[in-house]
Every structure is written in structure tokens, then in C-alpha cells.
From TrEMBL:
Coiled coil: none annotated. Pfam families: Aminotran_1_2. Pathway: Amino-acid biosynthesis; L-histidine biosynthesis; L-histidine from 5-phospho-alpha-D-ribose 1-diphosphate: step 7/9. Residues 44-344 form the Aminotransferase class I/classII large domain. Homodimer. SUPFAM superfamilies: PLP-dependent transferases (SSF53383). HAMAP family: HisC_aminotrans_2 (MF_01023). PANTHER family: HISTIDINOL-PHOSPHATE AMINOTRANSFERASE, HISTIDINOL-PHOSPHATE AMINOTRANSFERASE-RELATED. This is Histidinol-phosphate aminotransferase. It catalyses: L-histidinol phosphate + 2-oxoglutarate = 3-(imidazol-4-yl)-2-oxopropyl phosphate + L-glutamate. Keywords: Amino-acid biosynthesis, Aminotransferase, Histidine biosynthesis, Pyridoxal phosphate, Transferase. Its cofactor is pyridoxal 5'-phosphate.
Length: 360
């Protein structure tokens, strides 16, 4: 048996699959556990789908390039940003030899995608103030081909300082690609680093329509990078990655009217997030409310499982993120509609009353 075959067998046996919000919890009438946008928009479809779609639909690529402020040859569309992650690892990492670096607590799919493709993972935890530990990150440079940075970060909601991202780009010039995951960037557009693509040919930016555009069910994501990186990814991607109905809806979402609706939704969600954060700070059992620039808020509590279970019994789902490295007992609350947030706050207030009674 070859070294790679033996390694593959070991990795498959050890691999822990990503526990999505849908797989982790079911039921409930209010879903605030998957960072979805509950304020959906209606779209119209042509209904003509007897032909295979283009691999990279020109109208969609042009629409997103215009929206992101880049050239069309700097854009690749895929089945969510998750496929973009996998394509990057498959394209630029040699199984059994190369590595990626990640900075937890962060999005779990970077690690799982790498491990499933027999690529090592260097784990460099964020500092206590949720910034990059640059000395440790730079010390892990051997065999690193990709550095993943999530900003706004999931599940903490914080922004990685722009100057730190630039330091990483500078350090890894001619060494590795720096992948900045901007899945939630519409909630803090001023923090985007897409404008740095013209300066750094080792920068890759991941985007999605799942969050601010309220199209999680569409599974439509984008990778922004210099043309040679996009060309490499196109060689690796499946022949028909974007179904025709997906492209149709995505183009409508990226129209001027669609963008206007998205921005109005973002403004409302940001306002609801700040109101919820203010409310959460009044709860005695919440020891920390993490500042957030996304459509969710992370809370430190004494017993995350108990709180999640109590809230679920009332028909509302939030997410226990206590398994994340360095976080302790925490829950993540996705920001829903005004009615959903009012319902959640009422339940959390009743839990507070229950806690007081139990302490007597």
C-alpha cells in the first residue's frame, strides 16, 4: 500500500464531518441557529432548463464583478463559498505534503476540507482580543500554501484588523495564498479587502449570496482573485457547477433593485443586532456579549447546552458553539425578523427568571 493510500485510510477513519445547523438540530418554528437571513425576496424563473448551463454564466460573472468592483476574469462562481474552499485546497495543495493555516475559533469547513483531501492543518488560535497571533502564524510557514482568515469571523462576529491582513499578505508574498472569507462582509462593507486585489496577487476573497442576500438555499458563492488563480480553479471545477435557475435568481439579486433590497435588509438586521446585544447585556446569566459586525451575536453563558435546550423547548433554535477552540460556554444567536427577536428575548427573559428561582 502506498504512503498516500495508507494516509488516506487513516484520515478517513479520523475525519469528523462538519456538523451543520440543520444536522445538529431539527424542529422548532423559529430558526436562529444557521446565520440565515429570514427576510426573503421573491424571484421569477423562466422554467426553461432542458439544456446544460454554462460552467461560468457570463451574465452572472459580469453582474458579480460589477458588484464587487473587480474584472470579470477575477471572478469564479461556485456552489456556495464552501466549494470555493475545496477548489483552492485541491488546486494549490499537494496531498500528504502541503498544509493550510487557520486561526480558530473560526469556520469549521477550512479544517474539514483540508483533512478530507489529506492536507495538513496548522492551528494558530486567535489572541484573547480576537486578533491574529502573527508571530506564531509566521512561524508555521513551512509547506503552507493557503492561509484562511475569516472576517467578519464566524462565530465571534469580530473583524480581523485590516493592517494585520496586510502584514500576512506581505509575509506570504511568493509563498502562499491568503484567503479572506468575507461571507458576512455586507454587514460591514467598509472592512472589505477586495480593493487590495490589485496590489496583492496572493490575495483571494471568498463571498456568498447566502447571508445578506437571503439566498442560503440557492448555494451560490464567489471566489475573487487574480486571473491566473481563477484560471487554475476553473481547471478543477465541475463542468456544470451552477444550475441555470441558480444563475437566474442570482442575477436578479445582483441587479440594482436587488442590491437596494439587500442593503435595506442589512440596515434592519444591523439595527436588530445592536438592540439584541443591548438586551443581552441586561441578563445576569450572560457574562459576555461579543461585539459583532455580522448577522449574529455570540454570548458567554454558564451552561450553553441548558440554555439552548430551554429555548428549543419554546420552539426557537439557537446554536451551541462551546466546542470551538478557546471559547468556553457560548451560544450563537442569528438575528431574525423583529417578531422572531421579540419572541427570543421573551424566552431568554423567562430563563433569567428561572435561574433566579433556582438560586433561591
Amino acid at each position: 500500500m502506498s504512503r498516500i493510500s495508507s494516509l488516506a485510510r487513516q484520515k478517513v477513519q479520523q475525519l469528523v464531518p462538519y456538523a451543520s445547523a440543520r444536522l445538529s438540530m431539527s424542529g422548532g418554528s423559529v430558526w436562529l441557529n444557521a446565520n440565515e437571513n429570514s427576510m426573503a425576496t421573491d424571484y421569477t424563473l423562466s422554467g426553461q432548463y432542458n439544456r446544460y448551463p454554462d460552467c461560468q454564466p457570463k451574465e452572472l460573472i459580469s453582474a458579480y464583478a460589477s458588484y464587487a468592483g473587480v474584472e470579470s476574469n477575477q471572478v469564479l462562481t461556485s456552489r456556495g463559498a464552501d466549494e470555493g474552499i475545496e477548489l483552492l485546497i485541491r488546486s494549490f495543495c499537494e496531498p500528504g505534503q502541503d498544509a493550510i493555516s487557520i486561526c480558530p475559533p473560526t469556520y469549521g469547513m477550512y479544517k474539514i476540507s483540508a483533512e478530507s483531501q489529506l492536507v495538513d492543518v496548522n492551528i494558530v488560535p486567535l489572541t484573547q482580543d480576537l486578533t491574529l497571533d502573527l508571530p506564531t502564524l509566521f512561524a508555521q510557514k513551512a509547506n503552507v500554501k493557503l492561509v484562511f482568515i475569516c472576517s467578519p469571523n464566524n462565530p465571534t462576529g469580530d473583524l480581523i484588523p485590516r493592517e494585520q491582513i496586510i502584514e500576512v499578505l506581505e509575509f506570504y508574498k511568493d509563498k502562499a495564498l491568503v484567503v479572506v472569507d468575507e461571507a458576512y462582509i455586507e454587514f460591514a462593507p467598509e472592512a472589505s479587502v477586495a480593493g487590495l486585489l490589485s496590489q496583492y496577487n496572493n490575495l483571494v476573497v471568498l463571498r456568498t449570496l447566502s447571508k445578506a442576500f437571503a439566498l442560503a438555499g440557492l448555494r451560490c458563492g464567489f471566489t475573487l482573485a487574480e486571473p491566473s488563480v481563477i484560471a487554475a480553479l476553473r481547471q478543477m471545477i465541475a463542468p456544470y457547477p451552477v444550475p441555470a435557475p441558480v444563475a437566474e435568481i442570482a442575477v436578479q439579486a445582483l441587479s440594482s433593485q436587488g442590491q437596494q433590497k439587500m442593503r435595506a435588509t442589512v440596515e434592519q438586521i444591523n439595527s436588530l443586532r445592536e438592540s439584541f446585544s443591548t438586551f443581552a447585556k441586561t441578563l445576569a446569566y450572560v457574562s459576555r456579549v461579543y461585539p459583532s459586525k455580522a448577522n449574529y451575536v455570540l454570548l458567554s453563558v454558564p451552561d450553553a447546552a441548558a440554555l439552548v435546550s430551554f429555548i428549543a423547548e419554546q420552539g426557537v433554535l439557537i446554536r451551541n458553539q462551546s466546542s470551538q477552540l478557546g471559547l468556553g460556554q457560548v451560544v450563537r444567536v442569528s438575528i431574525g425578523s423583529p417578531a422572531e427577536m421579540a419572541q427570543l428575548q421573551q424566552i431568554m427573559s423567562s430563563y433569567s427568571s428561572l435561574q433566579k428561582q433556582e438560586s433561591l
